[in-house]
Amino acid sequence: MAQQMSEAEGFEPTAFIRKEEQKDYFDSINVPSIVESLESTEETISGAIKGFDAVVFSAGSGGSTGYDKTIEIDLYGAVKSINAAKTNGIKRFVMVGAAFSDVPAYWSDTMKPYYIAKQLADKELIRSGLDYTILRPVKLTDEDEPGKITIESDPYQLNKEIPRSAVAKTVLTVLPDESSYGKILEMSEGNKEIETAIKEFV
Amino acid sequence: MAQQMSEAEGFEPTAFIRKEEQKDYFDSINVPSIVESLESTEETISGAIKGFDAVVFSAGSGGSTGYDKTIEIDLYGAVKSINAAKTNGIKRFVMVGAAFSDVPAYWSDTMKPYYIAKQLADKELIRSGLDYTILRPVKLTDEDEPGKITIESDPYQLNKEIPRSAVAKTVLTVLPDESSYGKILEMSEGNKEIETAIKEFV
């Protein structure tokens, strides 16, 4: 996402990263980075994002960590970031959530804590008063090409996967688009160009 | 709590319990019980509490279960119960939370998910528009006698423990007390009679 953003017109992204080792990669694509943790206090996070125009939250604790990290990062990290944006007067907030997080009937036992975390993080954002857009992709793949996508209100209409690069391109496209404020986009790979899919949905 | 309530004037408690086996105990103290799970859907929980005048949430996943249950019961179970109360027009909601849940600096790594769950559950209640009172006891003990207590705004002023029976008696005392609406009571054993401690605090 940082790479797409830095190559596009009109963005000056800074990556908020957790590990010092990740810095080299962002240096190599000429994207400034801040090493800080979502496990830090709200005050620390607030200091780290001070002065920016928008926040894109796409962090996740990952599938290999425990449920403690699900609540600490995916949920509480998001809550602190939303509060930090408010504190700093940063009005624009794009959240990368998860498809089906409003559909408990779809949740498996092992994924349930993750979906709850994502649902409650989204609710926090919706109630925040910020200019939000929530993207809810299905399972992410690592294909380089974004390809085409489908955006739906009903996640059961989606396909099973979506490339990370498609989500990144969607973030870039909605970020400056005021007509996407207050919208929730459940999304997967599909049959429409990204710009077209967004325009038709929002 | 059910026992104290059923022995007191002016209450007709029903216990919301998870296991059929617990029913015998409540039968033995003449308290009706409903067997239902906080892992059920919001609609099911809503059906179970229909017609009551108040909800007291004192459930907890317990220390022996995993962090998945912390998020599913302590947090999401509470969120669903709060929403269910709103749906049913039940205005009065007393929450048994946890001392120090607003003080991240106090949290140990192992207890962190629990404190986050309790903090976010309380925030959900505060924003709900319900007539809430939040009790935040320190570590619970099983002494029969409630004894005396301390109620503070600053949990660092508290002692280390409190009998469950004291928390139960506090729930009973605040439940009909409108002056406790919108209040958060951090509490431990202490040097004041329960009624006095409440009256001086609220």
At the fourth level of CATH, the homologous superfamily of chain A is NAD(P)-binding Rossmann-like Domain
* SSE series of chain A: HEHEHEHEHEEEEHEH
Q: By helix and strand content of chain A, what is the structural category?
A: alpha/beta
Distance between the termini of chain A: 21 Å
Q: What's the CATH topology name of chain A?
A: Rossmann fold
Helix tally of chain A? 7
Tally of extended strands of chain A? Answer: 9
Helix fraction of chain A? 25-40%
Question: Quick one: CATH class of chain A?
Answer: Alpha Beta
Q: Choose one word for the global shape of chain A.
A: globular
How would you sum up the major sheet of chain A? 5 strands, mixed
CATH-scheme architecture of chain A: 3-Layer(aba) Sandwich
Give the rounded overall mean pLDDT of chain A: 95
Low-confidence stretches of chain A: none
Please, how many domains of chain A? 1
Spatial ordering of strands, largest sheet of chain A:
3-4-5-9-7
**What share of residues are in beta strands of chain A?**
15-25%
Secondary-structure blueprint:
The structure is a homodimer of 202-residue chains.
Chain A: H1 2-7, E1 15-17, H2 23-28, E2 33-35, H3 42-49, E3 54-57, H4 67-87, E4 92-96, H5 112-126, E5 131-137, E6 139-141, E7 149-152, E8 161-163, H6 164-174, E9 183-189, H7 194-201
Parallel strand pairs in A: 1-2, 3-4, 4-5, 5-9, 6-8
Antiparallel strand pairs in A: 7-9
Helix pairs in contact in A: 3-4, 4-5
